[in-house]
Amino acid sequence: MTLPKNFLWGGATAANQVEGGYNLGGRGLANVDLIPYGPTRFDVMAGTKKMLQFEKDYYYPAKKGIDMYQHYEEDIALFAEMGFTVYRFSISWSRIFPQGDEPVPNEEGIRFYEKMVDECIRHGIKPLITISHFDCPIHLIQKYGSWRNREMIGFYLNLCKVLFTRFKGKVHHWITFNEINMLLHAPFMAAGLLFEEEENQEQVKYEAAHYELVASAAATKLAKEIDPENVIGCMLAAGDNYPNTPNPEDVWAAKMVDRESFFFTDVQIRGSYPAYAVKMLERQDIHIPITDQDRVLLQENTVDFLGFSYYSSSVASADEKLNELREGNLFPTLKNDYLKASEWGWQIDPKGLRITMNTLYDRYQIPLFIVENGLGAVDIPDESGYVEDDYRIDYLAQHIQAFKDAVSLDGVDLLGYTTWGCIDLVSASSGEMKKRYGFIYVDLDDQGNGSGKRTRKKSFSWYKQVIASNGESLS
Prior knowledge:
Glyco_hydro_1; two-stranded parallel ribbon; hydrolase
């Protein structure tokens, strides 16, 4: 067999995109609750439009999600029916610490996640928990400025201590921060950052990044102290950047874009700031508030595996006029004429997954884990809710073959694969429900209207077969 017998197969979701129940169980408000659907969404995500409470005339999709808060047993049973051996989900920080800085956690919030964990284990599914999937309690933003403040490290560690202690012996796989490099691209959504006019936004973002990196190292240390069996990963929004031409200037431009992301994983995996980042920060007159204690903590508490999301590759150019033509996604890119694109303009590049895996494994030589990969598409159900999503099956089959090649032909060490949005959920980038990723159709529209009924798509039985064959049967 191409893949090891203990290879982990499953799917992934985020609390703020599926749970709903924003006002249930003692939960407090978080930044991710307050990102509206519609044309102002990106301005709020970017921290340039301030929105710290629900406002009239806006629809907030995270309020409802797909109501997994009420349906988690049904949903996990469906995952088990597909044969999942791992389910990656995240914690809503404000469900456990509604304000974020309380000395005592909200018991009802912990109990909810305890029931989710127990339900997974009952079905033979290993929980892979993302501690922070962009969530930040609003109180921490209002009082402390969120991750621009070093005090956030202590509040985050309080959350970690509760989780590591409560789930000791039940959960062994953890990710400290989801797509940590997204902080540079959507700072309010990713880290609760807001900016004042005339403020040096790059200074604020890299300061916040430093505190998250220190928090990640401190959490790794704490996890091992509480349970030596814990396995801790970081997570990168990944995808190689191709130079637009063989022109050395384009090759250099692609390397510079890659380094924006590698900066984070270089610190989390190698344990110190890379030389290129130090020089870049000096050139931009950005001052990182690093202490000797920070340096020791980073050096001595590196992660065990590198989790990453992969949806597409990108193309970079040194030509400023050409760059004006880039697609306006969170990671803008030039069009690659050799590739087809999804309905949202994301370029489909299965070979790019193999290339990206080789780039990451060559660079770090630690196990990789594909924790997000999938196709966002408009699904048209029949009268019974069934979706014949051959396009999704084709996309996933090609990407699975690509990572199998990386393992069997290139020697990459890969722990597992969790498809993104194994059940339909609210899109993080667009706030839409119609941008569907799941094997399970959820009857809700972009305004949250619908029955919420769950229906197996054609891809459901296909993925079940893939898992049962450990990736050998892809047709």
